[in-house]
């Protein structure tokens, strides 16, 4: 079959989209029987190109795929609100990226084989902003005290 089509397997898996010679090719949606779903590009029956993968646990990946795995640039959002944006190689965080926790803290730098390396920096999002505000307030108070007229002692 070539063109738009629908394939349903006996185990409950389902594909709806473009096919070439009976294989998934072009744009399509594949839904696994457990509810996991991929929407995006296919090449020669494999997830290849740009797409969205929705996991059954509530996590979501949006970006480039090669041979069915995240590869290239993409964003992985966990159900709890943590987000990784950056480079992927064969399904692992690899290269430059930023991991932001739901509280606003983040680590930015180099990842290797899904792990943070020593080549990066940790920033405390909300804590840093509060610290900067407190520091600015202290500086303003010190400047006001310095500028205030002083009474001479007796």
What would the keywords be for this entry?
single chain, 154 residues, mainly beta, Histone H3 K4-specific methyltransferase SET7/9 N-terminal domain, 2 domains, 1 helix, 56% strand, repeat, MORN
Account of the 3D structure:
By secondary structure, the chain is mainly β. It has two domains: 1-56, no CATH class; 59-141, Histone H3 K4-specific methyltransferase SET7/9 N-terminal domain (Single Sheet). The protein is 15% helix and 56% strand. It has one helix and eleven strands, in the order βββββββββββα. It has one helix at residues 125-147, and strands at residues 3-8, 14-20, 23-31, 37-43, 46-54, 60-66, 69-77, 83-89, 92-100, 106-112, 115-123. It has an eleven-stranded antiparallel beta sheet, with no helix packed on it. Strand 4 (37-43) and strand 5 (46-54) form a beta hairpin. The chain starts with a strand and ends in a 7-residue tail after the last helix.
């Amino acid at each position: 079959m070539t063109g738009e089509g629908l394939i349903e397997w006996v185990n409950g898996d389902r594909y709806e989209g473009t096919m070439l010679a009976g294989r998934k090719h072009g744009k399509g949606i594949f839904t696994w029987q457990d509810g996991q779903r991929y929407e995006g590009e296919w090449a020669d029956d494999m997830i290849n190109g740009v797409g969205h993968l929705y996991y059954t646990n509530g996590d979501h990946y949006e970006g480039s795929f090669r041979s069915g795995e995240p590869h290239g640039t993409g964003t992985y959002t966990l159900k709890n609100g943590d987000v990784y944006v950056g480079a992927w190689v064969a399904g692992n965080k690899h290269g430059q990226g930023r991991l932001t926790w739901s509280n606003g803290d983040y680590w930015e730098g180099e990842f290797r084989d899904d792990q943070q390396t020593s080549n990066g920096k940790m920033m405390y999002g909300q804590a840093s902003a509060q610290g900067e505000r407190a520091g600015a307030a202290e500086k303003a108070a010190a400047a006001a005290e310095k500028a205030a007229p002083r009474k001479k002692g007796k």
